[in-house]
Design a protein that fits this description.
The protein has 150 residues and is of the alpha+beta class. The protein is built from two helices and eight strands, in the order ββαβββββαβ. The N and C termini lie close together (10 Å).
């Protein structure tokens, strides 16, 4: 069976279990899974955490400017709404520039719909996302201790 959950063990208190949605974004789910299995996300911080909006991470440089060495992904925009717990890919101005950075919505952010690729939804542990230190960037950013796919 395909890998269907991504678990992010956060230093803010525990595990965030994310249900992967290859039905919405097969390429993005494959990328996230590949990077997680390689240990790419281990130790990576949430560099942009905006209360009432979202927590963004997945950049190994912690600046919001970095990514993996893999090529950028083609956009897989879908109709899934950006609501609390939804996981979506961050990107630059170019729609086809998503690479390794992602964000988890704290609240409804439906103005992002069909412009960013939704690839998963938090099934449990959203309180640990809520507990991440806030800021752009936070003074002491919260980090992913380990990312695992199961």
């Amino acid at each position: 069976m395909a890998d269907d959950t991504l678990t992010l063990s956060l230093d803010s208190g525990g595990d965030v279990v994310i249900k992967l949605r290859p039905d919405l974004a097969p390429g993005h789910v494959e990328r996230i899974s590949t990077l997680a299995k390689q240990g790419f996300y281990d130790g990576v911080v949430f560099h942009r955490v905006i209360p009432g909006f979202m927590a963004q991470g997945g950049d190994p440089t912690g600046t919001g400017m970095g990514g993996s060495e893999l090529p950028d992904l083609k956009a897989e925009f879908n109709a899934e709404p950006h609501v609390r717990g939804v996981c979506s890919m961050a990107r630059a101005q170019n729609p086809n520039s998503a690479n390794s950075q992602f964000f988890i919505c704290f609240d409804d952010a439906t103005f992002l719909d069909r412009q960013y690729t939704v690839w998963g939804v938090v099934e449990s542990g959203m309180e640990h996302v809520d507990a991440l230190p806030k800021g752009e960037p936070p003074a002491k950013p919260g980090k992913i201790v380990k990312a695992t796919v199961a």
